[in-house]
Write a structure and sequence with these properties.
alpha/beta, Arc Repressor Mutant, subunit A, D-Maltodextrin-Binding Protein, domain 2, 3 domains, nine-stranded mixed beta sheet, 10 helices, 25% strand, globular, DNA-binding transcription factor activity, DNA binding
């Protein structure tokens, strides 16, 4: 199985057609089709369902796409690390992170880094705690940004000097919107949209002294911020989330903090015994010089 064929496969997936991919790749359509058929024969699995207008992936094809993308990303990152001469700092740094306002600390450091080293570039993947862990474990991400619970023991990490407060996001016409703080007893008659991480890792329950899984939770979410906002606006419930994850300026929404005060820390983590590129090592220098 050749790296080149993996790239061809991913291009067909993106374009949803062999014709479209052949134009992007500047490869003849018959040649591309033959190579994909050979790939399926090699694997002994059907990867595509070939329709009249577009190609869709089979279940095996979707799994192969995920693994092929991981291989391509790792290969590109490795090539970039060795592309330049020893005295030039360049290459890609990859982060996996959750959605939280406090990440601005990291972004400001990366902005300064890029100004000083314009050949250093950044890749970002966003997801929940488990997704960030997965990308770190597979070596796809150089760094992971964890929100809330501190990272597992298999990682080294530093705490970023930023914390976000947990609270409830609701419509302005909700009776709770006039309160300065919301307590657990205020939520027992409310329909809740809640972070899956907060529920599964007991972050909120342990500090409130009450199992929030017992509340009326109508929807669980990971990083569906736009969907969550629409659900609140459509009066499906109020959302338990971190402050400023969904902006309220110019909207009919209000954020009310939880009481007692519950804050989520922010951690920059990496695999233990990681060997960093010259570019990746600079992340620590620029975070310390913020």
């Amino acid at each position: 199985m050749e790296y080149r064929v993996l790239r061809y496969f991913l291009s067909v997936v993106r374009e949803e057609s062999i014709t479209g991919a052949s134009k992007v790749l500047h490869v003849s359509q018959p040649s591309l089709s033959k190579q994909l058929s050979s790939l399926e024969e090699e694997l002994g699995k059907k990867l595509f369902v070939r329709g009249n207008r577009k190609i869709t992936l089979t279940e095996e094809g979707e799994y192969f796409r995920k693994k092929a993308q991981e291989i391509v990303n790792l290969t590109d990152s490795l090539e970039a690390a060795f592309l330049y001469s020893d005295d030039k700092i360049a290459g890609d740094i990859t982060f996996a992170c959750g959605e939280v306002e406090g990440i601005s600390i990291l972004i400001k450091a990366l902005k300064k880094l890029h100004l000083d080293y314009p050949d250093v570039h950044f890749n970002f993947y966003t997801g929940n705690y488990e997704y960030v862990s997965e990308l770190l474990d597979k070596g796809i991400a150089d760094f992971g940004v964890f929100v809330g619970a501190s990272p597992a023991e298999k990682y080294d990490y530093i705490a970023l000097s930023s914390k976000s407060r947990w609270g409830l996001l609701m419509r302005n016409d909700n009776p709770l919107a006039t309160k300065e703080e919301v307590r657990i007893e205020d939520l027992k008659d409310q329909e809740l949209l809640c972070s899956r991480q907060a529920l599964e890792k007991k972050e909120i329950s342990s500090k409130l002294g009450y199992d929030i899984n017992k509340l009326n939770i109508v929807s669980k979410h990971d990083l569906m911020m736009n969907t969550t906002r629409i659900m609140i606006e459509e009066n499906m419930g109020i959302a338990m989330l971190l402050e400023n994850v969904i902006p309220t300026s110019g909207t009919n929404l209000t954020f009310i903090p939880l009481a007692p005060k519950i804050e989520a820390g922010l951690y920059l983590a990496w695999k233990k015994y990681s060997v960093f590129s010259k570019a990746s090592k600079l992340v620590f220098d620029y975070l310390n010089s913020k």
